[in-house]
Amino acid sequence: MSGTLFPKGGPNPAGAYFTGQSYLSALSEAGVQIFNVTFEPGCRNFWHIHHAKSGGGQILLCTQGRGWYQEWGQEPRELHPGDVVNIPSEVKHWHGAAKDSEFVHVAVEVPGEDYSTQWCEPVSDEEYSKLP
User: Fold this and answer.
1) Half-sphere CA count of 82, side-chain side, radius 13 A
2) What is the model's pTM?
3) Partner of 66 for a Cys bridge, out of 22, 81, 98, 116, CB 3.0 to 4.6 A?
4) How far is 73 from 126, CA to CA, in rounded Å?
5) Does residue 101 belong to any structural domain of this protein?
6) DSSP states along 36-104
7) Cα 50 from Cα 119, distance rounded (Å)
8) Which residues, in sequence order, are bridge partners of residue 67?
9) Residue limits of the Cupin type-2 domain (predicted)?
């Protein structure tokens, strides 16, 4: 995708928790961790939860392409450049690209006490294929 705001980076080291190929570029790891994440078409991460005793969570700043975000038990939300997703800690969710579009977002890891990410099951091909 041409005209990217931030570097694409290399293959995502958390790729074992993604269906498809994603790329990761660390933009800042001083104080607040900020990453540029690029998803190839059809790529999405597994369901996951950002745990924290206090604070924590994640903010997604959508910069390119078309993607999806879904919280457990909720309808999927289509994402476009300029969209912002605030994900509180302890909310099970996934995010990724549309079938026909690369998708890029900046992920801001909200600082929290005893922060960790729990990776859960993949988003099934059956559920993903229902998205437009």
Assistant:
1) 0
2) 0.95
3) 98
4) 16
5) yes
6) EEEE-TT-EEPPEEEE-SEE--EEEEEEEE-EEEEETTS--EEE-TT-EEEE-TT--EEEEE-TTS-EE
7) 9
8) 79, 97
9) 37-104
